[in-house]
Amino acid sequence: MKKASLFLFVLTVLLITTHGNALALNSPLKVGWVIGWDENNAVILHTKNGGRKWVVQGKWAGYVGNDISAVDRQTAWAALGSPDSTSGIILHTTHGGATWTEQTLPEGVGAIKGIKGLTRHEAWAVSLTGTILHTTDGGKVWNIVKHPDFLIKQVNRMDAIGYRDVRTEDRLGRNTGMINANVWIADELGEDSGHLGMIHTLYNGDIWRQEFIPCTIPPPSCKVHMVSAYSPRVVWAAAWFDGTLYRTADGGENWEKVGAVGPNDIDDMCAYSADKVWLVQFQSAATGYGVIYNVRLEGGEFGFDSFKPAINYRYEGLTCVDDQTALVVGYTDSPSLLPKGIILATNDGGQSWVRQPIPVDDAKFWKVSFVGARR
């Protein structure tokens, strides 16, 4: 290779590397976890520097990774299920993932589909078949939360937001008042073919209700599939096999259609404001597999930017901070492509996406959560 060509090659590599590192260094996303699976195990990855370096923190034989929730630099929860969805476990770390502990669950819970940590001590979880779990002691005890008036048939996604309405301070001045939680559960097979498939508590699990989402596709195709909460009043949702988005601005009293993106269902969403949300969607090989959307409502008008940064990969997990910063995970089913998993980050609203280096070739990634992010 000629000297001039070698110089240009090295310069190009340095520019790409510098750009990727700059993205990670400038991003507010620093400490986070990704969950997925390889051929035989659930897999968890961890980063301390925004994805410049990911490390494997563990593999759990006989399970797939369904969800992950970061609370702070030391605390996170993970939801696992068996491939046949008959059993599941919850993992918890209080040491930044250096150790993960399997927590004791009530008998017969099944595959844990979703989990959301609110504090170092409090978290909510739900099984695939609708058993709702709640802990207030860091997972030493998980209690089943009854919802006798509403049968939940098949959960796809959940979200929870907690707030303290009473201030009780400890000796260090920290607020230790009771947390009231709003929890939303998207039930794909809910009553009336999914039109009433959003299950919601405004009262920390004491009272539950089903909320009507006015799906634009006819029964039985309408199945509430996805949910992301920005606040106790503003929540976004989507239905199975459809790119239509719905939103409530009054805590679920009323849900309205706000617009639509491409065909097929939304695989994850991250609401970072009342009027804006990041989405990921799998379409088809013909359209480039995965699509990332940055959606906005401005003056009542629906609009979005769409991105396809990696052909042949589908995106399944998403976390975000604002309109500029998001991180997406997913995988490929192509037998000829390695690695199977992918992690992409943007710090400029999606105009450029950096593919982050990962330490495994055979793991597929499903969900992602960062400390301080909206998911």
The amount of helix comes to: under 10%
Secondary-structure element series: HEEEEEEEEEEEEEEEEEEEEEEEEEEEE
Measured distance between first and last alpha carbons: 48 Å
Mean pLDDT: 89
* Net shape: globular
Spans where pLDDT lies below 50 across 5 or more residues: 1-20
Question: How do the strands line up in the largest sheet?
Answer: 3-2-1-28
Number of strands: 28
What can be said about this structure in brief?
With 375 residues, the chain is mainly β. It has one helix at residues 3-26; strands at 32-37, 41-47, 55-61, 64-70, 76-81, 88-93, 101-102, 112-117, 123-127, 132-135, 143-145, 155-164, 179-187, 198-201, 209-211, 224-229, 235-239, 244-248, 256-260, 266-273, 276-282, 290-298, 301-307, 314-320, 326-331, 341-346, 354-355, 364-370. The protein has a domain at 1-30 and 266-370.
Describe the structure.
There is one protein chain. By secondary structure, the chain is mostly beta strands. It has a domain at 1-30 and 266-370. 6% of the residues lie in helices and 44% in strands. It has one helix at residues 3-26, and strands spanning 32-37, 41-47, 55-61, 64-70, 76-81, 88-93, 101-102, 112-117, 123-127, 132-135, 143-145, 155-164, 179-187, 198-201, 209-211, 224-229, 235-239, 244-248, 256-260, 266-273, 276-282, 290-298, 301-307, 314-320, 326-331, 341-346, 354-355, 364-370. Strands 3-2-1-28 form a four-stranded antiparallel sheet, with no helix packed on it. Strands 4-5-6-7 form a four-stranded antiparallel sheet, with no helix packed on it. A four-stranded antiparallel sheet has the order 8-9-10-11, with no helix packed on it. A hairpin with a 7-residue loop joins strand 10 and strand 11. The longest helix has 24 residues, at 3-26. It is globular, with a radius of gyration of 20 Å. The model is unreliable at 1-20 (pLDDT under 50).
